[in-house]
């Protein structure tokens, strides 16, 4: 079968090969024919080494498709079921799951170190234990979440990561208050979803911050009340909040510099929500006096900060009701053979989400 492979961490391009086979199918597993997958910035971060991932590997973790085979012991799933892929399934038995923090379950991360593909040259890993830049993938049954027939594969794929992450940051983690002021730094697919979440929660002002003009324009269409470039943020803070700072600031870039900006743009007693996934060696500094004196809440948001299955259902319900726009997030479409075009679209910022049709 065909798949897009990164041979070594740090390479900028993927090689589309046709000698890939799935591996690891057996009890507790399902094999999925991938129909659509989104390109998430986390895929780029894994490629360049910001996020740890053994190589060679197949990127992609935001996908949807059909089950083509079910291993022994799997219940509730059948051949032909339409599913989205959950890259962070909950085991239900660990301390985090028992506390109700299923999004912090580490069981899914263990899958990233187990190859689920192979080729004549040896084993190949799937990013985050999935690897959706492939025609087929074998995953734990818990990674396959059934979707209703009226949800297209491309929409379902987005719900599998970016939409759930952004919406959840605003709804679950920050719990944006009605009438509040919000700034979102970084307006790709996740940032736009955070904007939609803040709008749903009733924020009065939502300022989108991004260096790319086309993304700023898109943010306005998705619910931002104003869109500015990073060097205009200080002026927006002064105009909108009289210099006090925003009630909520979402950092959706994953860099210490933008996180520091987010902190400084948050009012005293306000909430800074960290959504972007950054590097382990990128240090963010605070002094002890400002932490005490400003009493700003610093809330990291992992995968939307809530039970992902509930978040999936909520996103589908909101999409059906026309309360959120998911189709509009897909600004570009490519075939698997054109995957490097998708990477360029992400790197230059011209896309919100590129859908790779497989």
Give your account of this protein's structure.
With 358 residues, the protein is of the alpha/beta class. The chain has twelve helices and 19 strands. Helix 5 runs parallel beside helix 6 and helix 5 packs across helix 11. The protein is globular. The mean pLDDT is 96.
Return residue spans where pLDDT drops below 50 for at least 5 consecutive residues: none
Q: What's the total helix number?
A: 12
Number of strands: 19
Helicity range: 25-40%
Please report the distance between the alpha carbons of the first and last residues: 11 Å
* Multimeric status of the protein: single chain
Average pLDDT: 96
Report the β-strand fraction as a percent range.
25-35%
Overall geometry comes to globular
Largest sheet properties: 7 strands, mixed
Topology overview:
Elements: E1 3-5, E2 15-17, E3 21-22, E4 29-38, H1 41-47, E5 57-58, E6 62-70, E7 82-85, H2 95-98, H3 107-110, E8 117-119, E9 122-126, E10 136-140, E11 144-146, H4 153-159, H5 162-173, E12 181-185, H6 189-200, E13 205-209, H7 213-221, E14 226-228, H8 233-241, E15 246-251, H9 256-265, E16 266-274, H10 288-294, E17 297-300, H11 308-320, E18 330-335, H12 339-348, E19 353-357
Parallel strand pairs: 5-9, 12-13, 12-15, 13-14, 15-16, 16-17, 18-19
Antiparallel strand pairs: 1-2, 3-8, 4-6, 4-10, 4-19, 6-7, 7-11, 8-9
Helix pairs in contact: 5-6, 5-11
């Amino acid at each position: 079968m065909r798949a897009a492979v990164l041979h070594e961490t740090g390479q900028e391009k993927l090689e589309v090969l046709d000698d890939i086979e799935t591996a690891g199918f057996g009890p507790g597993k399902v094999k999925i024919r991938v129909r659509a997958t989104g390109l998430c910035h986390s895929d780029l971060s894994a490629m360049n080494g910001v996020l740890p991932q053994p190589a060679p590997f197949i990127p992609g973790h935001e996908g949807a498709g059909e089950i083509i085979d079910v291993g022994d012991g799997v219940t509730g799933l059948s051949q032909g079921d339409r599913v989205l892929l959950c890259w962070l399934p909950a085991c239900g038995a660990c301390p985090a799951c028992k506390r109700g923090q299923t999004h912090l379950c580490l069981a899914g991360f263990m899958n990233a170190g187990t190859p689920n593909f192979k080729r004549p040259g040896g084993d190949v890993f799937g990013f985050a234990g999935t690897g959706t830049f492939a025609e087929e993938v074998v995953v734990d049954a818990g990674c396959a979440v059934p979707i209703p027939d009226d949800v297209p594969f491309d929409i379902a794929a987005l719900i599998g990561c970016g939409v759930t992450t952004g919406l959840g940051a605003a709804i679950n983690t920050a719990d944006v208050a009605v009438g509040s002021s919000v700034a979102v730094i970084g307006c790709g697919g996740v940032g736009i979803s955070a904007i939609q979440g803040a709008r749903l929660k009733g924020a009065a002002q939502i300022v989108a911050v991004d260096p790319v003009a086309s993304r700023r324009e898109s943010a306005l269409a998705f619910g931002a009340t104003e869109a500015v470039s990073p060097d205009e943020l200080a002026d927006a803070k002064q105009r909108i909040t009289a210099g006090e700072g925003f009630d909520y600031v979402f950092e959706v870039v994953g860099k210490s510099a933008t996180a520091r900006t987010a902190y400084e743009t948050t009012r005293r007693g306000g909430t800074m929500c960290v959504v972007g996934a950054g590097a382990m060696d990128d240090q963010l500094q605070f002094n002890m006096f400002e932490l005490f004196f400003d009493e700003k809440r610093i809330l990291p948001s992992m995968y939307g900060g809530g039970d992902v299955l509930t978040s999936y259902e909520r996103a589908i319900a909101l999409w059906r009701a026309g309360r959120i726009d998911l189709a509009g997030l897909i600004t570009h479409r490519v075939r698997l053979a054109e995957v490097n075009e998708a990477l360029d679209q992400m790197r230059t910022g011209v896309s919100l989400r590129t859908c790779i049709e497989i």
